[in-house]
Amino acid sequence: MSYMLPVEMESIDNESIHEFKDEILSIPEMKAQKSQPIQELGEGSFSGGLQAKGDDKMWRNVVCRSIKTVVLSNKLNMLMPFGPLAIFVHIFTGHNGWVFFLTLLGITPLAERLGYATEQLAFYTGPTVGGLLNATFGNATELIISIYALKHGMLRVVQQSLLGSILSNMLLVLGCAFFCGGLVFQDKEQVFNKATAVVNSGLLLMAVMGLLFPAVLHYTHTEVHFGKSELALSRFSSCIMLLAYAIYLFFQLKSQKNLYVPLNEEGSQNEENSDDDDETPEISKWESIIWLIIMTSWISFLSEYLVNAIKGASVAWKIPISFISVILLPIVGNAAEHASAIMFAMKDKLDISLGVAIGSSTQISMFGIPFCVVIGWIMGRPMDLNFQLFETATLFITVLVVAFLLQDGTSNYFKGLMLILCYLIVAASFFVHVDPSAADEAGT
């Protein structure tokens, strides 16, 4: 029996290697590269050394092509060197203001590439698993930063950064999409499927309810057990919200997926379907998994420097921590959503833009926030859903404003401009808002 284990492990490794090679060769470019040495050498002329040399050349081509596709094909990736630069600045100068700024720039393209790798992997998994992947990795950057902040006991930074990501998606990202799409199509009114907007608005209002009751319980001093009932209610509500989000995914992907068909003219809908059929993955399944691991690890590494530099950046720039958490941190995670939403809106694919902006807000409110509460529970941190009165009121008003603007299923540049102006008001409000509890946490 002792001799069987190495043999079995060797067969498993060989199967994984052959599966990876088959995935690579399924891409047309690699098929051509593989057939070239075969034609040159002829049938039956392979020796062990020549085959090994050909395999080495193939692997080098795979690596070079993958790096070119993932890293060198996007202009936003020019910001990647700022990540290592932030580490050098931290080591040699210790200036937290510059460390925070450079880390913020360095993580931004990584967040976009993380979304790209997730989309590529979804080609191989099908719509159901692909939807789960997007739900998991769609806001991975925000969750990674939040987990590191939880680790350092910066609970208010976690709450405010997640809140800021919701506000940014609902007001700034959606507003820019409506505004740019309305400018391109001024001669007509753009339309989108109201079913998606209604369901997401309902989920967002449910999230507001989950945040509102712990805050009301706290400020009315009506807790049965002071300091404990609020936390217990938050943890119970978080589990309910996670369950509701899981049912929503099933509803969206399996039960009622016909409700989410884009609402366009028949011709444009057929054109979109034909475009979707023509889409093919640019990298293989195993390449997507490897790049997901690389991007997630690098984001996690830089997030440590980002979180540690928040207090120093607040002091160096004379900016409240609440403004950094609500306005500046969400720029990292929402850069990809911002660009994608605008691009699809300018192509008159408003349903996709709406899904990017409102869908991300729903993911954070119904999955990201309660997930952090549960993680804090596991880590022994008293993370709750009491986001304080100012933040909860801001979210409640934002959800109401967006829900009213989406109820008729149409958009134009004026609606987009209103959302952008609302975001500027929110940003100015947090610029003059000082949160003493966040400052106390950063100082400990």
Automatic annotation (TrEMBL):
Key words, A-Z: Antiport, Calcium, Calcium transport, Ion transport, Membrane, Transmembrane, Transmembrane helix, Transport, Vacuole
Membrane topology: Multi-pass membrane protein
Domain Sodium/calcium exchanger membrane region: 98-253, 288-430
A single GO cellular-component term on record: plant-type vacuole membrane
Places the protein is found: Vacuole membrane
Gene Ontology biological-process annotations: intracellular calcium ion homeostasis
Residues spanning the membrane: 85-111, 131-150, 162-185, 197-220, 232-251, 289-307, 319-346, 352-377, 389-407, 413-432
One MF term in the entry's GO annotations: calcium:proton antiporter activity
Job description of the protein: Vacuolar cation/proton exchanger (CAX). Translocates Ca(2+) and other metal ions into vacuoles using the proton gradient formed by H(+)-ATPase and H(+)-pyrophosphatase.
Family that this chain belongs to: Belongs to the Ca(2+):cation antiporter (CaCA) (TC 2.A.19) family. Cation/proton exchanger (CAX) subfamily.
NCBIfam families membership: caca2, cax
Protein name: Vacuolar cation/proton exchanger
